[in-house]
Specification:
Number of strands: 6
CATH topology: Pyruvate-ferredoxin Oxidoreductase, domain 3
Order of helices and strands: EHEEEHEEHHHH
Radius of gyration: 15 Å
Structural class: alpha/beta
Low-confidence stretches: none
CATH class: Alpha Beta
Number of helices: 6
Largest sheet: 6 strands, mixed
Mean pLDDT: 92
Distance between the termini: 21 Å
Shape: globular
CATH superfamily: Pyruvate-ferredoxin oxidoreductase, PFOR, domain III
Length: about 180
Amino acid sequence: MKKELIISGFGGQGVMSVGKSLVEAGMAEGLHVTWAPSYGPEIRGGTANCSVVLSDHPVGSPTFIHPTEVIAMNLPSLLKFEPLVQSGGLIFVNSSFVTETVTRDDVRAIYVPCGEIADQLGNPKVANMVMLGAYVAATKSLHPETIRHMITELFTGKKAKLVDLNFKALDAGMACVNTNL
């Protein structure tokens, strides 16, 4: 198994957190992983993306040209990275911010209303965890329990009160995909 994923969106949408979460969960499951962030010149609101590799074999390079999957949290990300996805790959689209559809017929598109789901949960900041849940459910490349454990480790001290909310967001994202398979 080898997943080469680009996660992209506006700064502040949590794309780096999703990438780090995947890498940490991958390490916990004994996978070989890389994470390479890329930021625009702005801090919040500018473009940000990261490249993630999850593999059961050693990773020769953290860079790649044609990802197996893309997570597009906004329209500029979809427009930039859709053409690069390998034939047969997956494109996850945050349909709360992206009203256009994937134009290619040789890839599978999964539309996840991250913003609406996060708003229903009471906190728009968990939209990234909704998308993480969708990714985990669709690719089955990591175990949901590993992600839950990673969330518990991430949110400690005063932030421990956010664990349940993030679990709900993760579960909602997984349910969104599981009902559309």
